[in-house]
Amino acid sequence: MEIARGMLGEEQLTLSAEAEAVLADVFSVMADVHDRENGNGRAVRNLLERAKRAQALRLMGVEGRKSRADLVLLRAEDFAEFVLPPVPGHP
Questions:
Q1: CATH of domain 2-80
Q2: Which residues 6+ apart lie within 8 Å of 52 measured at CB?
Q3: Which residues pair with 14 in a beta bridge?
Q4: CA–CA dist 35, 66 (Å, integer)
Q5: Are 13 and 72 in contact (CB under 8 A)?
């Protein structure tokens, strides 16, 4: 999570509380999958880049002028593609 916070801070982006919870869950799943790509800076950067693209598409659908707060906030829905459906019997 620290890598993500650092990358977001460099771009002056913030996470909503819900987005932070989703991201923590995604990182938890990534940690359970012992893959070369999981947990490293490149994986985090790729995930954040995809979330920023989702944010841009979301904001394109919002009519009118966007506030600075709108432009710097990543919301849970921007990470929707990374959320897996719950598995029965698993927390």
A1: 1.10.8.60
A2: 13, 74, 78
A3: 73
A4: 39
A5: yes
Check: CB of residue 54 under 8 Å from CB of residue 78. yes
pLDDT at position 3 over 60? yes
Distance separating alpha carbons of residues 7 and 1, to the nearest angstrom: 10
The whole-number pLDDT of residue 90 equals 46
Q: Are 19 and 75 in contact (CB under 8 A)?
A: yes
The Cα 42–Cα 21 span in angstroms is: 21
53/33 Cα distance (integer angstroms)? 25
pTM, 2 dp: 0.80
Q: What is the pLDDT of residues 39-86, one digit of tens each?
A: 578 889 999 999 999 999 999 999 999 999 999 999 999 998 887 665
CB 25 within 8 A of CB 31: no
User: Sign of torsion, CA 51 35 18 85?
Assistant: positive
Residue 69 CA to its chain's centroid (Å): 17
